Amino acid sequence: MIENVRQVVTTQALYRMPYYIQQLRVLQEQRIETVSAPKIAELLNLNEVQVRKDFAAVYSAKGKPKTGFNVAELLDSMEELLGYNNSDEAVIVGAGSLAHAIMTHEGFQDYGLKIVAAFDTDADRIGTDINGIKILAADKISNLCRRMKIHIGIITVPAYRAQVVCDQLVAGGVLAIWNFAPVHLSVPDHILVQNENLAASLAMLSNHLKQALGAEA
Amino acid sequence: MIENVRQVVTTQALYRMPYYIQQLRVLQEQRIETVSAPKIAELLNLNEVQVRKDFAAVYSAKGKPKTGFNVAELLDSMEELLGYNNSDEAVIVGAGSLAHAIMTHEGFQDYGLKIVAAFDTDADRIGTDINGIKILAADKISNLCRRMKIHIGIITVPAYRAQVVCDQLVAGGVLAIWNFAPVHLSVPDHILVQNENLAASLAMLSNHLKQALGAEA
DNA sequence: TAGATTGTTAATCGATTAACAATC
DNA sequence: TAGATTGTTAATCGATTAACAATC
User: Fold this and answer.
1) Over the stretch A65-112, which tens digit does the pLDDT of each residue have?
2) Structural domains of chain B in order of their starting residue, each with its CATH number
3) Cβ contact (<8 Å) for B97 and A113?
4) Which one of A29, A197, B13, B125 has the fewest beta carbons within 10 angstroms of its own beta carbon?
5) Could you tell me the pTM of the whole model?
6) A182 in contact with B, Cβ within 8 Å
């Protein structure tokens, strides 16, 4: 029995992939056909060995000594890996201004994310639509996810509501959750929660400023 | 000469702080006065030693064996550390729907972030305002930042515009940048770039789905 | 007291970086 | 060929976790 031995891509490497993709696209627009790891490392301010390892993890693409890597092939491999070609369907819960921004952001289609329904508890919002996506009553979450075989749920509700919503999504068979609420969500082991904690990012900014400005005092 | 030897808080620990704060607030609402590290660890699905170390990094607060930590004191220390009490002023560049969501999100005020001006290149937007914040012409970035001593810049422009905007912010004396554009930004060493790369988050979701669903095949 | 919990030192783990032989 | 660049093995670094004595 042949195991699928494709090298596992680490979490950190996965985070870097979109930066490689973006940079490779720029190079492609400039009609540059090959690029070396040291060059990419310089452009993205990374270590060249790290770049080479990340590239190696993207299966098919192989580099040539002295020449480097084929830009187009590398780009294809990465886009394939990140699923930019096949679209995943998602629902979004909490139809506030953040949800609005996410739903109207055309870019996500390119990244293989397709939002097919939105949910809210606000009676005034239910029945309306944003960018062509219908807003439904929140009590229909589980049913709709199960019926439509939705695997991604996006949470943009207030913190105190997030766990309840999360449980409903999981009950509906969702396998991955993109959580914008600033709370820890408890989920079964096989479910991935990707936290987009803006409060945590602000903590970084604030801490840096304190250091930078405090140093003068 | 006495050095400031306050234990440095690691990047990872800083990321966890908002979760501690959120959890501590919930406990406080329940009139719970003390809490142990193992309890918090259980609630947030973390290791108890890690929780204790994180708490230790927050200076003043000390735990008592058998009792644990004082919720109110711990909360105060953390909010102080993250600058929730003193407000940092920021400008936002790119007045699209994401900027709109950020500007109308009242929560950021509580986190100590105050957006005082927005910039755009679109003549139709310039002169209007969002949530009471005036939208100004993008060529005024450096001047305004310098004049108002703004230290935080938020970038929500398209990828191809981000580096130019970043340079203008840095020229205006900004020390920390919150970057929502999916590109690497080159900045001098003393400037912090906090990337909020939604494409990278999507990469995580997509990869997890591939694993979870692919395993069946 | 006994035992839960703290704080700290030591061991482990994972990711990054350095060193180096292979190759075009 | 010489030298830039690749791919890989070994060393380093930082963060997490385990082990354990101190304490209320």
Assistant:
1) 999 999 999 999 999 999 999 899 999 999 999 999 999 998 899 999
2) 11-81 (1.10.10.10), 88-200 (3.40.50.720)
3) no
4) A29
5) 0.94
6) yes
